[in-house]
Specification:
Helix content is 79%, strand content 0%. By secondary structure, the protein is mainly α. Helix 1 packs antiparallel against helix 6 and helix 5 runs antiparallel to helix 6.
Length: 156
């Protein structure tokens, strides 16, 4: 089950990245043309939030059950984990960055849920853009020193 969820976690990254890029473009266009938020915008934002929250649940499971999160801190001690770049990335940096990104996505989507004017487009645009930057910086891309993982699940 753990491997299946890791596979899903890896794949879902592409769904989130795609939906984020589409949402950012739509809100930028809405912002500049001053059109109201429409049903299409809301649908993309909703799917984005559901994907992000699914990722959070899978990630929390991995962090608490797998060997890279809580167990790494328990087995090695916080001082050792903080001094080791690879251990620190998995136990602290990945979860912190991704939690921040998921909060940004949730707040951005909330803005669009409450209002439909150009101001809502603007808020969603900035929150989603920030989330995209944080996610891109926090993904364990292949080739990242010590923490690189496959670009697609199962591709080595
Ligand atoms: C948008 C959010 C997220 C993205 C894009 C993302 C992306 C990834 C990727 C690409 C991997 C490597 C998968 C592989 O080895 O094939 C990974 C692993 C991992 N992620 Fe995330 N992640 C996100 C959120 C989270 C969150 C919120 C947590 C913790 C609460 C988390 C915990 C983990 C852990 C512990 C691993 C390593 C699991 C293992 O190898 O046993 N992730 N993540």
């Amino acid at each position: 089950m753990y491997n299946g969820l890791l596979y899903l976690h890896s794949l879902l990254r592409w769904v989130i990245l795609l939906l984020l890029v589409i949402a950012i473009i739509r809100h930028l266009a809405g912002m500049t043309s001053k059109r109201l938020v429409n049903a299409g915008d809301k649908k993309i934002d909703l799917f984005l939030m559901i994907s992000a929250h699914t990722m959070l649940v899978i990630g929390l499971y991995q962090w608490f059950v797998g060997g890279y999160g809580l167990k790494s801190i328990q087995n090695n001690g916080m001082a050792v984990v903080m001094k080791n770049a690879v251990m620190r990335y998995w136990a602290i940096e990945h979860i912190t960055g991704m939690l921040l990104a998921i909060i940004l996505i949730t707040v951005g989507r909330g803005a669009v849920k409450r209002a439909t004017d150009a101001g809502a487009h603007k808020k969603a645009f900035w929150f989603f853009l920030l989330a995209l930057i944080v996610i891109l910086a926090t993904i364990p891309w292949p080739g990242r020193m010590g923490v690189g993982r496959p670009i697609f699940p199962g591709v080595h």
